[in-house]
């Protein structure tokens, strides 16, 4: 993904140390905008984030 001033910014994918993955938009190092947050078990949160926090427009899809 993209970086600005040493922080994630723009479109990109990041794998966290616990195995969680976020693919989507970043602003000033925080998830911000549309994206998909995938947990190690395959469950996903799809929707919108603002300043690193999910908002009401997020859909949870559980893994089989």
TrEMBL record:
Q: Which UniProt keywords apply?
A: Repeat
Supply the Gene3D superfamilies for this chain: Histone H3 K4-specific methyltransferase SET7/9 N-terminal domain (2.20.110.10)
Q: Which SUPFAM superfamilies match?
A: Histone H3 K4-specific methyltransferase SET7/9 N-terminal domain
Q: What InterPro entries does this protein's entry cite?
A: MORN
In terms of SMART domains, this protein maps to: MORN
The protein, known as: Membrane-binding protein
Q: Where is the organism placed in the taxonomic lineage, from the top? A: Bacteria, Deltaproteobacteria, SAR324 cluster
């Amino acid at each position: 993904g993209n970086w600005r001033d040493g922080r994630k910014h723009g479109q990109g994918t990041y794998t966290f140390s616990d195995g969680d993955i976020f693919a989507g938009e970043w602003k000033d190092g925080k998830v911000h905008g549309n994206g998909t947050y995938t947990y190690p078990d395959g469950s996903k949160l799809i929707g919108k984030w603002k300043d690193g926090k999910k908002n009401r427009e997020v859909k949870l899809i559980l893994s089989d």
